[in-house]
């Protein structure tokens, strides 16, 4: 291992959209920085890869909508091509029900979600309740409650029995889009946007350089990496909380902060892109969107870049992902194909390529799409994490004031963290100047 020592103003651990956004803010302010990324690529939970046909696809975070202003502006500024997700035609629920029943069930599930979000997160009546315990007390029809469970476990990718009700309410209130969140994806992949941001960092980015130790004190920080040592005035840990908790801090973080990082669990997700020769579902006036009522967390939608690149994306989330990941690749393909055939007909078996990416227990991000608080008593965890322990700062999409668990949230979180660090550095310079 190299004994290289580098010095900088701010070290950033993690080159997902949080770390990249923070780095670009520091660059604009003329502050020196160094970004240290464990993977051999940037993007974090956003990832592009080649499928079996040699096509570049999104195997991680992919979708965006017009109500995500920072991400939309960034993609437009970088000249990305927006592909509008195909949603025309009938939405399929399986086991099947009439269009009228499906519409009514969806409306009732959304009514449950809206009723939940009208509760104040700090209402003492819900202090010890999980989402599952609260749902059990509701008097809605069984189908509506099942649809609600499938929706929430599909979005948040953990069993409702694990998620505190106050946390889901607080989190859900920050997701403010009125437009369908799967409205667009980028023809060039979301990963290409991360690559563009990384290109602006020139030589201030180090890939394949995991940080193993962070020593911190009043005079700054010292990071031990796979490539050597980095000394800085401050460090931004731009990682999901459950991943940040695994870092070796010396001295150990104060108990309250260590506890705040420890109460999170990563979601379980398997993302599958199924390529077809043609979008056969459109001919039958179907949207390609399917929600399985008997398998909470299983969802499919059209992800065709155009008629020549017909595709369905299938998300397996939460407890179902934990079950499915135990299957061999061939068995998982067979099970998913059978589900698609049941819902969309025999043409769903005529597959050109089947690409699966299991994000559960990912080495560097823990899982996807997000970490969630799983301790009903951890009401102040986010606030404690955001306060950090200067010169050690933390940021991630999970603790963003808007769109937590989305790329939009990561961008906002990174920019806010950079602003805090800049203010702290400027204050230290002013204090030093006044004392000299």
Specify the number of helices.
14
Helix proportion range: 25-40%
Biggest pleated-sheet summary: 8 strands, mixed
Give average pLDDT, whole number: 95
Strand content: 15-25%
Rg, rounded, reads 22 Å
What is the number of beta strands?
20
Description:
β15 and β16 (298-302) form a beta hairpin. The chain is α/β, with parallel strands linked by helices. α1 packs parallel to α14, α3 (99-117) crosses α5 (142-156) and α9 (255-262) crosses α13 (381-387). The longest helix has 29 residues, at 407-435. It contains 14 helices and 20 strands. 36% of the residues lie in helices and 23% in strands. The two termini are 41 Å apart. The model has no long low-confidence stretch (mean pLDDT 95). The relative contact order is 0.20. The strands form five sheets. Strands 1, 2, 8, 9, 10, 11, 12 and 20 form an eight-stranded mixed beta sheet that branches. A six-stranded mixed beta sheet has the order 6-15-16-17-14-18.
Record the SSE blueprint.
Layout: E1 4-13, H1 17-28, E2 33-36, E3 48-50, E4 56-58, H2 69-77, E5 82-84, E6 90-94, H3 99-117, H4 131-137, H5 142-156, H6 165-173, E7 184-186, H7 190-199, E8 205-206, E9 211-217, E10 220-225, E11 228-237, H8 241-244, E12 248-250, H9 255-262, E13 264-266, E14 269-276, H10 280-283, E15 286-292, E16 298-302, E17 310-317, H11 319-324, H12 329-344, E18 353-358, E19 371-373, H13 381-387, E20 392-394, H14 407-435
Parallel strand pairs: 1-2, 1-11, 2-8, 6-15, 9-12, 11-20
Antiparallel strand pairs: 3-4, 5-7, 9-10, 10-11, 13-19, 14-17, 14-18, 15-16, 16-17
Helix pairs in contact: 1-14, 3-5, 9-13
């Amino acid at each position: 291992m190299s004994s290289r020592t580098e010095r900088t103003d701010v070290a950033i651990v993690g080159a997902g959209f949080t770390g990249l956004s923070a780095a670009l803010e520091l660059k604009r302010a003329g502050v020196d920085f160094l970004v240290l990324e464990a993977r051999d690529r940037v993007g974090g939970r956003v990832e592009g890869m080649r499928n079996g046909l040699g096509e570049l696809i999104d195997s991680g975070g992919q979708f965006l909508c017009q109500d995500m202003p920072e991400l939309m502006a960034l993609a437009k500024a970088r000249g990305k091509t927006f592909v509008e997700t195909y949603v025309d035609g009938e939405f399929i629920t399986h086991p099947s029900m009439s269009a009228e029943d499906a519409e009514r069930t969806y409306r009732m599930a959304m009514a449950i979600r809206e009723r939940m979000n009208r509760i104040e997160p700090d209402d003492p009546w819900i202090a010890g309740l999980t989402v599952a315990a609260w749902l059990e007390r509701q008097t809605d029809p069984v189908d509506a409650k099942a649809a609600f469970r499938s929706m929430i476990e599909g979005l948040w990718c953990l069993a409702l029995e694990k998620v505190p009700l106050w946390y889901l309410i607080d989190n859900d209130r920050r997701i403010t889009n009125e437009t369908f969140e799967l409205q667009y994806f980028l023809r060039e992949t979301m990963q290409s946007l991360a690559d563009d941001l990384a290109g602006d960092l020139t030589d201030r980015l180090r890939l394949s350089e995991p940080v193993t130790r962070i020593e911190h004190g009043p005079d700054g920080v010292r990071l031990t990496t796979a490539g050597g040592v980095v000394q800085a005035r401050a460090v931004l840990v731009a990682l999901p909380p459950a991943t940040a908790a695994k870092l070796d801090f010396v001295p150990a973080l104060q108990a309250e902060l260590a506890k705040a990082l420890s109460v999170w669990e990563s979601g379980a997700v398997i993302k599958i892109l199924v390529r077809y020769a043609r979008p056969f579902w459109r001919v039958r006036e179907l949207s390609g969107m399917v929600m399985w009522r008997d398998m909470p967390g299983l969802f499919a939608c059209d992800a065709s870049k155009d008629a020549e690149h017909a595709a369905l994306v299938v998300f397996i989330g939460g407890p179902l992902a934990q079950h499915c990941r135990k299957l061999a690749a061939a068995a998982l393909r067979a099970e998913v194909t059978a589900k698609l055939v049941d819902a969309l007909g025999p043409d769903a078996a005529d597959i050109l390529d089947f690409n699966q990416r299991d994000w559960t227990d990912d080495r560097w991000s823990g899982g996807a799409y997000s970490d969630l608080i799983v301790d009903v008593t951890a009401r102040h965890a986010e606030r404690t994490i955001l306060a950090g322990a200067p010169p050690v700062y933390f940021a991630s999409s999970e603790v963003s004031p808007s769109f937590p668990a989305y790329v939009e949230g990561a961008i906002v979180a990174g920019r806010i963290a950079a602003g805090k660090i800049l203010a702290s550095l400027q204050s230290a310079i002013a204090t030093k100047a006044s004392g000299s």
